[in-house]
Amino acid sequence: METEQGAVKRINGGMRPPGSTSQDGVSSSISPSQRTVRKTRPQRIGKRMRQILRELEKADPEDLDEDVLAVYRALDEAGIETLLLDSEIDVRRTDASEPPKLISDILFTEVPALIAKPKDHEQVRLCVRACRDKRVPLVVRGAASSAFGAALPPDAGLVLDLGELVGVKSIDAERSTAKVLAGTRWADLSMELKKKGLALFSSPSSFFSTVGGWISTGGHGINSFSAGGISSQVRRLRVVLPDGTERSLSSKDPDFDLFSGTEGQLGVITEVSIAIRKMPKHSRAMLLQTSDEARAFRLLDSILGSGSKISHVMFYDEHRSREINQITPIPGNPLHDAPAILILLEGDTPEDIEIPLPSDIGWTEAPVFMANLLWGNRYFPMRARKQGPGMLGSEQVIPLVNMPRLLARTRKLGRMFGLEIASEAHIMSDKEALVLSFFLTDQRKPFMYTIHSIISMLLTRLGIEYGGRPYAVGIWNQPFSSFVFPEEQMDRLREKKRELDPEDLFNPSRFLSARSKFIAPIRFLLRERITLFALGSLLAATEFFSRISRRIMTSTRKEGPTPLELSSLACARCGACVSVCPAYLVTGRELVTGRGKMLFARSVLKGEAIDKRESDEIFLCIKCHACEEVCQTRLPLLLAYEELEERLESAHGRPKELIGKFVAEVEASKEYERLLYEGIISPDAGMKGGETDAV
Asked: What pLDDT score was predicted for residue 342?
């Protein structure tokens, strides 16, 4: 079970002490004397291991069609890393969403042919130009932590993976600006700033998403109450346009807004200059509860109008408070099953973190450790997912004045289907809130899961009914895109799309596209008026059929999954594990990460044929526990890895020679040393004389 200190320490990159144990009881350390002594550093760290894997994979580019093959050759000649292995392509066909198989089989009939992994701006530009010259569709992918389908490739083209377009180029404390490459994770940028006594103004709730990805989404998140949306903090962007040209835009440029909220359809952001601040000297988290929601919203109004130095405010409905009780490591029920408000105050004096609160509403303050625990868990809204073992829901921006009625309708909709829908809200200003509503589901039951997916669309439809808009569009919210952008702005964006990308090759089949790859019936269904009518009719009919629907929706779940079964189903696919994985940083393969392994495990559990090349790469792991430390759903990943390796070893054996080369490469890498320095992995984790725990 996780302690309060553990939750906060994990967010801050805290290191587990040597000799400690993870939540699954698997020891992560050995004595220092067991570690190998490194006398020399291998040359070309990472490149050597990648070359070994490239030779192992033996992927034949001649199997590509003529145009994609020409792109491959152009990128290879330019020294741009590419991947062809099926398992790597399978990972890039997913994001944090998991549509029902029936829907995904209809919408995504083609598979990407090639993955490109550029390391700098010029390589990105070459990738875009090569695809443009040969009319090959291209989809841009960052961390793929969104659940809206923005990173999903609907065509058999190229995936432009920006996962290694990373690095903090400069930090200028005097000008309060940091310059970073767009694939840099927010967590990594925050860590670099902390070393200099600096901080971000705001960050996404998906802390391991990329800088460019959140800007492309037009992000709001942590500290948006005080700092506003991310676009207001960006000072300059460097982008590659769909026609292969490049631009550098200041925040005052009239075209600056083309790249915020348009989800990468009008260009690839490659470099960002962003505003930063000094680390506040004092901060305080407070957690308040009231007996009912009416009192809670009265209290919220008082807090927002207090004039205090509030950085962030979160609202939890009674269902979310109950859910927190169920998953918290604190014994008993530390929260009442009642609404709660979490406040973060920041400033340079003790007086800055005080706030006047009304005495006539009737509120109680929760213990400080609970306030700190919830604040420490602010980046993990889907912590309860493994109880499902799946989770669905919606994210939408709502007028604050309408939020009480929306939450009441949301809970009513859940009751009609026998679901407990839990909601939390990030208060963006005194006028708007970003509302996240989630409910548990079980993707092992196709019919129920399909209906639950429709219910998640109903939640978005409800938000629109109360004056809201989807937080992002992607693929799944395309029917509601007109609520995100005013008509005049949408016309301007679509005109710019036609100008820059007339053949719709760049992030195709999105909401600015003139064409769609969806087959006719789905294309018809996704037309906005049809969808709104259908969902509105379904919403009106649910109350009439509520008794029947409750019986269907609450059928008995399957019991007793193994750690591998649980982890493969409950993985949120958020990508938090990717950027802290030493194996990924050395190999560049997502298959070796927690997310990649759990996707791969589904094929293994289904009894599908497994290629030995893919099997061998699964063993490239130093058992450092970093993936467990940042896991959104706190899955028993090390136990899952052991089970997966046992299954693969029985079929294909254990590649000990490859493992030995891999461990030597990891130990010699600068990235491994960085993770040690930052406390993300223990210095003794997993290493045993040049092998892993599993050898």
From this structure: 98
